Amino acid sequence: MKINHVIHNFYKHFFLFLLFALCFNFSLAQSDSTRITLVVENESLKNVIDSLETKTNATFFYLEEWFGDELISIAFENETLPVVLEELLSKTELNFYILDGDKVILTKNNIIYDELPNNFFIKRDSSSILTTAGTDQRQLRPIFYSDRLVANDNRVQKIQVGKASKEVKTSLAKISGVAINASNGLPIPDLVVQIKNQNIRTTTDETGYYELELPYGINRMNTRALGIEDATFELYVYNSGTVDLALNEGLEQLDEVVLEADAFRNVEEATTGSAQIDSEESKNIPLVLGERDILQVARNLPGISSAGEGAAGFNVRGGKTDQNLILLDDATIYNPSHFFGIFQALNPYTTKGVDIYKGNVPAKFGGRLSSVFDIQSKEGNTEKFSGEASIGPVTSNIALEVPMKKEESSLLLGGRGTYSDWILKSLDEPDLANSSANFYDVIAKYDHKISDKHSISAMGYYSKDAFSITSDSLYKYSNRLFSLKWKHAYSEKNRGDLILSNSNYQFNIDYDGEANTDFLLGYKVNETELKYNLRYLYNSKHTFDYGIASKLYVVEPGSIEPSGSDSSIEARAVDQEKGLESAIYISDAYKVNDKLLIDAGFRLSLFTALGASTQNIYQEGEPRNDGSRTGSEEYGEYEFIKTYIGPEARFSTRYLFTPTFSIKGSVNSGYQYIHTLSNNTTVSPIDTWKLSDLNIKPQQGYQYALGLYKNSEDNMYEYSLEGYYKQFKNAIDFKTGAQLLLNENIETEVLQGDGKAYGVELLLRKNTGKLNGWLGYTYSRSFLKFDSEYADERINNGEYFSSNYDKPHDLSLVTNYKFTKRYSVSANFVYQTGRPVTYPIGTYRFNNADYVYYSNRNEFRIPDYYRLDLGLNIEGNHKIKKFAHSFWTISVYNVLGRNNPYSVFFVTENGEVKAYQSSIFSIPVPSITYNFKF
């Protein structure tokens, strides 16, 4: 009986199960066979779901918060419910599952499984979640989360990414997004994004964009950047998707964050000879008269120097000052300094930072041989009105950030000025009675976010200097810049920047002497450029940068006109010069594997000298002078005079021996079509600018570099050793006794020859801790060679000689010690070999007249340069809720009172040759500056 009862119950349950299965399959078949015709125009997804419920009698289960505001336009004709749902939800992160034929369960991100994949229980690596399911796609295993994998910390944000699918074509999911500052909506560049316990990390670009490839499942993601709180996210990765990050500011963690990001760049990027300076870094470095100056900080880095104290411009790795491309928001700034180079012509509170390339230069930059200083100004606060200002002994600065439309647009305003004229007139010193020195600069920048894919920014800048170091001459120069940038994203992979810029630099001398020889003398350089830079993220291994650019130069080499009705000076001007420089470029950052990275690029530049112009023609093979000139040729307005084509190679590579130790090498070549002619010994910036033409060839440069980079103790210490070798062709110099100003036949005074430079740069840097700073040392040499069969075209008998800026030894020590978060002391020590100079070594008498006999050019050197600066920094309390945060800087420049000569010159008095030296600061210069931020 018991056996029969068991058999009876078995068959009873079996038939019930069979009946349930038949009913379920019948119901499902009914659902699949139900045909739907539906036309939707600009309806929300919620309304479409409601319509489907009415047409099919199916019940949908979901959360309304999953539906966005996007409107849908779609049409179906005689389709089944699964087909309709598949198409309807294809562009969302929603999946569906049909239960019992009339119950539709919607899920966000994940998927409901009613059976396990084949081979699910086969033992496999714990990190593997894919099984093979064909040649071009893979089957995704269900992702199960255990409590030990999921963080219970409320500070860890949990984010679901992507729409789950049973089949995928890749083994990794692509995650991308934009990181912004939660307080003002501005993008966060150079944010380090790292996956915990995996060798996966990247940094955001200037727009805050980042991209990673992650395994499916749980990934712990950490972020860190300068001035931003460290954040941790738990990503539940179902598929490729977007993760935008809104991060909070972290004012108390600045010292810990900035150097971590720099350390990763130092070891991991492929570019040699690059450096990045944040404007905040100049805050704790004692500089002259307490001025914050990122360009002066740059001069303390290996490989960057100047001709001397008070010299404008930079000499980078043995190059001339005109071989540096200095950009402010993509517009060229020809003279980025005030008052003999003592102050920078940039407001420190509107300046975000500078990227310096002195080794391998990215292919998007061109037109200069030695370096690129890419200076970026800040973006204004889009959330609230804020500002920053300082009051010093000589200058005052202010910057204001004005939200124009919350989270969309802002206006940044900055101004600087000096009251040194008032100080000079207040001093009881007769020698300074007629002296004057004043300057100012202003900047305005407007940023507007049109949409997630489009934004524009416009910048305008103007600076002006006027100073008099003699009683009869007033020197004036000005910079005027404008740039307009449109940033847009065609897709997540392809983005571009369209940039229009204009730069104008003008220099004048107003001479007012005792005789009737008063005059106004000046020159001007103007350039207008249009360029289109694009970036294509092809895949995880290849990132392409490509673009096109064209620049029009208009140079007025010099003019003079009488000042006043009694002046006997005759007005005249050197003919205006024009030139068109264009280029196309492409580069590929190729990640071969986790250790090897290659950045290869090519740039093709073209330069055409344009009329109207009169070009002299000289007998070939003869020195250019009045005697060898055979005629001239006239060219009409914008007529082509001469075209030069310059292919340029940009190649660099990096190999990681370990995550903290790498070796890099690079090869770089370039062409330069605009040049300056200067004797480099005067304090006033009276250079002559010249474009390449029929008689002046473009300069060519080649650089080879190799370096080792090492970080240690969690990036607390940074070490780098880099060597380089450079060659120049058609380097420009002038003949002995040349007349450069207002010379209509300037090519007769110019020589073109060869140059070479080589050196080794050492940087030791401590990034964190109470004591931080760096020690930089450079051994470098720079030589020029001008040889010819004609004596007047040879210098130093045709042998290599030291350039004006050849300084074999250059050492800088920058330190800062923090006693507390509010009090710190800093020191800055600089030592440089004295630069070359030409001395008179004898006298001789000819035709009853005395003459001075000079040595070979640059055979001697002025005394070595060294200087020590000290500073005390006092910050106000760090309370968050206060009107303004203050910062005092007390410093002494040139503590040792060293009388460092800038130049040496010689004067004949009563038949005797006397030597004199000019110095800028020969005594200690104390200063106190009050800074505040609100």
From TrEMBL:
Keyword annotations: Cell outer membrane, Membrane, Signal, Transmembrane, Transmembrane beta strand, Transport
Residue stretches making up the TonB-dependent receptor plug domain: 290-368
Coiled coil: none
Gene3D superfamilies listed in its UniProt record: Carboxypeptidase-like, regulatory domain, TonB-dependent receptor, beta-barrel domain, TonB-dependent receptor, plug domain
Gene Ontology cellular-component terms listed: cell outer membrane
Signal peptide feature range: 1-29
InterPro entries: Beta-barrel_TonB_sf, CarboxyPept-like_regulatory, Plug_dom, Plug_dom_sf, TonB-dep_rcpt-like
PROSITE patterns: TONB_DEPENDENT_REC_3 (PS52016)
Pfam family of the protein (one): Plug
Bilayer topology: Multi-pass membrane protein
Family under the similarity heading: Belongs to the TonB-dependent receptor family.
Protein's name in the database: TonB-dependent receptor plug domain-containing protein
Lineage of source species: Bacteria, Pseudomonadati, Bacteroidota, Flavobacteriia, Flavobacteriales
